[in-house]
Amino acid sequence: MKYLVANWKCNPESIAAAKKILSGYAKKIKKSKSTAMVVCPPFCYLQNAKEILKSRTAFGGQNCHWQSGAFTGEISTAQLKNVGCSYVIAGHSERRFNFGEADQIINKKIKTAIATGLTPILCVGETREQRIDGKITEIVEAQIKEGLKDVDVTTTPIIIAYEPVWAIGTGQACGVDEAKFVREFISNAISDKIAVLYGGSVNAQNAAAYVKDAGFDGLLVGTTSLDPEEFFEIISAVAAIKPKSKITGQ
């Protein structure tokens, strides 16, 4: 199974614009048995996404809280589940660095998501400074170890998304060989049965290489997913890749 996850982040600014993107998706995207497509719009557009896309894709939250109740501005895993989400992103670098989310907080979110019946997509990745210092695997390993603490990865559906921080939204995508090295490191460190995605300046030109050549099980696509035409090009490029002989990510 290959995965294509569209993370809209805090975009767009109006319902009309969101519906336009979703309508663009609806014209192009068809339900696939070989590729799981997950759309993660802002919470306020999830209902619109369900109404327009119906069963063409799965849906996910961009974030969650591990409790419900007196937590103004948050959204619980139960709320996401009840609005139709099957996935939730946890530990995105923008949450880590802009909102100070530590690995311990991310771990709580992941465990609660699993208990609620959501598949967490744990984001890991190094900054440019950490990369220069040669700490890529050290950082990635620590984020995975702490993020998945007390989680049985052999029986629980988990997805890992490798997103080098320095590549996110910069147009400077990670080299395929370097990304492959990290992908293999992650699989060896945890399990080759866990799906590992690549994210960070993914576009229609480089998407296929990360799956075919670097061995990733799919992609976490940010800003580019706001353009239905280019996102469909990414979907088509990945869908055209023949399945690997060894099934991963299931």
Question: Key features?
Answer:
250 residues, alpha/beta, 10 helices, disordered C terminus
**Broad structural category:** alpha/beta
Main β-sheet, in a few words?
Answer: 8 strands, parallel, barrel
Measure the end-to-end span. Answer: 7 Å
In DSSP terms (H or I, runs of 4 or more residues), the helix count works out at: 10
Mean pLDDT: 94
Low-confidence spans: 245-250
- Our count of domains comes out at 1
- Assigned CATH architecture: Alpha-Beta Barrel
Strand content: 15-25%
Give the H and E element order.
EHEHEHEHHEHHEHEHEH
Helix content: 25-40%
User: How would you write the strand order of the largest sheet?
Assistant: 1-2-3-4-5-6-7-8
Overall geometry comes to: globular
Report the CATH C-level class. Answer: Alpha Beta
Describe this entry's structure for a reader:
There is one protein chain. This protein is of the alpha/beta class and 250 residues long. It has a single domain, classed as TIM Barrel, CATH 3.20.20. An 8-stranded parallel beta barrel has the order 1-2-3-4-5-6-7-8, surrounded by 5 helices. The radius of gyration is 17 Å and the shape is globular. Helix 1 runs parallel beside helix 2 and helix 7 packs across helix 8. The chain is built from 10 helices and 8 strands.
Blueprint (SSEs and pairs):
Layout (H helix, E strand, L loop, with lengths): L1 E6 L7 H14 L6 E6 L5 H8 L4 E4 L15 H6 L4 E4 L2 H6 L4 H14 L2 E6 L3 H5 L3 H12 L11 E4 L13 H14 L5 E5 L7 H6 L5 E4 L6 H12 L11
Parallel strand pairs: 1-2, 1-8, 2-3, 3-4, 4-5, 5-6, 6-7, 7-8
